[in-house]
Automatic annotation (TrEMBL):
Taxonomic lineage from the root: Bacteria, Pseudomonadati, Pseudomonadota, Gammaproteobacteria, Oceanospirillales
GO molecular function, one term: dihydrolipoyllysine-residue acetyltransferase activity
Biological process (GO), any one: pyruvate decarboxylation to acetyl-CoA
Protein source organism: Parathalassolituus penaei
Similarity field: Belongs to the 2-oxoacid dehydrogenase family.
Keyword list, A-Z: Acyltransferase, Lipoyl, Repeat, Transferase
Protein name: Acetyltransferase component of pyruvate dehydrogenase complex
Amino acid sequence: MSKITVTVPDIGGAEEVDVIDVAVKVGDIIAVDQDLITLETDKASMDVPSSHAGKVVEILIKVGDKANEGTAILVVETEGGAAEPAPAAAAAPAPAAAPAAAAAPAPVAALAAAGGTQAIELKVPDLGGADEVTVIELCVAPGTKVSAEESLVVLESDKASMDIPAPQDGVIVSFKVAVGAKVKEGDVYAVIEVGASASAAVPAAAPAAAAAPAAPALVAAPAPAAAPAAAAAEVELPLPDLGGVDGVTVIELCVAPGTAVKAEESLIVLESDKASMDVPAPADGVLIGFKVKLGDKVSQGDIYAVFRTGGAAPAAAPAPAAAPAPAPVAAAPAPVAAAPAPAAAAPAAAEEPVGNVSGVYAGPSSRRMARQLGVDLSKVKGTGIRGRITKDDIRAYVKSALERAEKAPVAAAAVTGGSGIPPIPAVDFAQFGEIEMVKMSKIKKVTAANMTRAWLNVPHVTQFDDADITDLEAFRASMKAESEKAGVKLTPLPFLIKAVAMALRAEPSFNVSLHHDGEHIVQKNYVHIGIACDTPNGLMVPVLRDADKKGIYQIAKEANELIKAARDGKLKPRDMQGGCFTISSLGAMGGNGFTPIVNAPEVAILGVSRAQMKPVWNGKEFVPRNMLPLAVSYDHRAINGADCGRFFTTLVALIGDIRRILL
């Protein structure tokens, strides 16, 4: 075991850069190239990857700190006795600066000697093995004067995005690529005109390259110098955050022990009762073995496999020597090569974060999440420093979008019906004659949305019956003078409310709601009755509470007050909440019957039509009786036909003989 301090690599000459995120904590097992911290300048943000694999034993930096090249980030405990970066640099022969200088394009060297200007073709540098990456932004316009390290184009692969900077001061003559074009390493992407003053930047880059073990120096180094690169670390892999779910099931082991895998390649598949998820490899390496088996229950933090990282480093080490031309472009991430695995520098460059790409300010890890979730970053509001979009911003956007989709816009619900039902085609009614566009009130729009939702979600059944109100009407007429003295207007409605309340007590199967989890029914031990009211603003349903505990006069008084408040627009939200059952009466308007829509989350509603004198057979003869048409619609998920039969029989009996209310 050895402890190594990981430091901030070359950050393109920037100083006092803000630390805006620390991605690991003490005790974490990290892999080579795993993001440790995120830095941000006034132009871009960048993730700093780990140069070593192992266990984090101490973190030396925090969010809000200022960092420079060489600032200590953390201490990592590694296996295999990895060497410190300094000896590796010392192992490089002194003449290493010569090949670095030779890496500058030949025309530039000639230009420096001549003291004139010349146009140079700029080629795409090493992309860390990625092919056919996409040009997503041209950062400057042709004719623009640029400085060394200023971003010229932005490329994006399926894993990361990266800026391609200017190798030195100059003027962009033209671009050879367009946004959306596919490019690969070595492709010419622009022409830059440089002068004698600008060419000085090229020799300046040579000492920087010499400070780190440059590619030619690595090739020239003796064989023992490569030993640290060959060191491999075996680490235990813990399960990541599972979104708060515990006890998920292992349903698949995707690779066999001993298999070489790539970063992000799936190792196991987990399944909860709601979804399945792949757990990917954190880096390139070899799977030593699994610590779980099919069918096991696991939770966040459980060790599921043993993994060896860094084994492929020696084979990849000579790769930088094959591409000396783009050395000035790759100068920024070069210090990462001082790690025990120099070849990791190329993938680190591919993962280099960018900010403000295509008008959006976000790092590559956030962009990767956005691609995976199909999120358009231009629609996400950033809450990070200077408006930077973070992963939490993307999660919040997705959550908000899902909530909006579930609730569905009121207008869309009113017109299309939702639930995948094809919308009603748009019609230009003006072609048939004169029209007027009348804006719907808020209440009308809410009612339309509620009715659509109820009709689509509730399997309605409606049963019909007639109640004999001859005796009730006679009793009500006899009580008219007395009720007026008490200051109460006695209509049929308070009798219906009281009868419904008593029927709900007698048949509790109607006084329920379906729980949102789909596995329970909520049995209510209170009786609150909703009264559907026609108001100038639209349909409203105030709720009369504890109707089963109140007398006829009190019910009549409170009902009249609620109806008046509804028509005057003075109802409070609480006055329209908590109903158990709704009564919708069209008696004053006429009609022989209708099918009312259940006012979900209630499970039933009573529709009352106009009473009529009808001949009724009493066993001996037909006699005239005042019959009231009733219709009960109910949610067939909660109520069966037999339940409604019992409820309806009880209700009709109570209305037919009001003395039963006292029983």
